[in-house]
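Researcher: I'd like a candidate sequence for this fold, 342 residues long. If you have to choose between options at a position, lean toward the conservative one.
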């Protein structure tokens, strides 16, 4: 088990090190394709950029879905002073990015470093605090530019991607701190499951496939799945916060989010299995949340749907989880696809 957890931790670090704000996901998808092929699988890349792979089994097709796109920003315009005005990708929160290092990616492949700041960040200068809203934020490039023309000469233009530094850390006590644990932590867990299936020769109780989506943060990542799909479980971050039972050390099973309730019978099966396996889990309701599998339902697929994931605190900020939450999530997924009866 420790070997698997070490593998998942390594994959998390590798994935978070690849900038992949929504729409800028090719490098992350290419990485997944490479890793899965090295395991001996035959993954496919969809037209929109999703990665799909069947890891074994037959009958009653099931998909586990995680997303590799993240929050981020895009260059909205270049200011006359050479700084960049951003526009949000996904539900990015600027108040938590104030002072964050970032990279700017041009369409011809150049990468520039910079820092995200509000328009008057100096406490020794500002007459009053600046509200940290999108219109008051800007990116200062680590280049000697002081005009729009000088910035344009670097090859930067409207529509270029702005990616925040992830700052991924795993402490000796098992805490995981990083941006974009939503949802690269779950993607790493699914890679761990795929590796176990190959190395341990797990006998799967049905056809099991993995779907890594690239537009979840804007609502249509899981809109297309194979027509024979009978059941799909989004493996995404579990919410931790006020009025919720989950902690960072648990696997969270979501009964309902902003899109409505998840399949009642499936949630019952997952929770009873977690109890049987002695896993630390919670059933919770997420008031402000939407998942890939709901996009699948809205696109017309007739499937049973569920949502589970490791507990993650401070979502859409600098997030925190724990390796115990990873372990509980992994073991629930493994138990679900190997149990004797469905």
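Model: Candidate sequence:
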């Amino acid at each position: 088990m420790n070997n698997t957890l070490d593998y998942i931790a390594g994959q998390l670090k590798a994935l978070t090190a690849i900038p992949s704000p929504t729409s800028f996901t090719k490098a992350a998808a290419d990485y997944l394709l490479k890793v899965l092929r090295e395991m001996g699988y035959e993954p496919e890349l969809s037209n929109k950029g999703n990665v799909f792979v069947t890891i074994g089994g037959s009958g009653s097709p099931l998909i586990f879905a995680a997303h590799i796109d993240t929050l981020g920003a895009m260059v909205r315009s270049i200011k006359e002073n050479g700084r960049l005005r951003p526009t949000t990708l996904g539900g990015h929160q600027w108040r938590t990015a104030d002072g964050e290092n970032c990279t700017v990616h041009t369409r011809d492949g150049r990468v520039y470093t910079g820092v995200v700041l509000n328009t008057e960040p100096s406490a020794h200068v500002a007459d009053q605090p600046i509200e940290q809203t999108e219109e008051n934020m800007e990116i200062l490039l680590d280049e000697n530019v002081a005009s729009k023309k000088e910035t344009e000469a670097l090859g930067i233009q409207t529509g270029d991607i702005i990616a925040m530094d992830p700052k991924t850390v795993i402490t000796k006590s098992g805490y995981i701190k990083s941006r974009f644990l939503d949802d690269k932590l779950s993607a790493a867990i699914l890679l761990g499951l795929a590796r176990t299936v190959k190395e341990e020769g797990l006998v799967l109780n049905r056809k099991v496939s993995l779907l890594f989506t690239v537009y979840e943060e804007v609502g249509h990542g899981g809109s297309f799945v194979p027509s024979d799909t009978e059941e799909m479980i989004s493996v995404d971050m579990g919410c931790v916060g006020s009025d919720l039972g989950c902690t960072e050390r648990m696997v969270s099973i979501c009964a309902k989010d902003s899109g409505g309730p998840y399949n009642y019978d499936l949630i019952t099966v997952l929770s009873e299995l977690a109890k049987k396996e002695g896993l630390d889990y919670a059933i919770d309701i997420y008031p402000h949340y939407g998942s890939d599998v709901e996009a699948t339902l809205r696109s017309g697929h007739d499937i049973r749907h569920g949502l589970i994931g490791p507990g993650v605190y401070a979502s859409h900020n600098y997030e925190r989880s724990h390796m115990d939450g990873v372990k509980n999530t992994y073991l629930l997924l493994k138990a679900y696809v190997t149990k004797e009866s469905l």
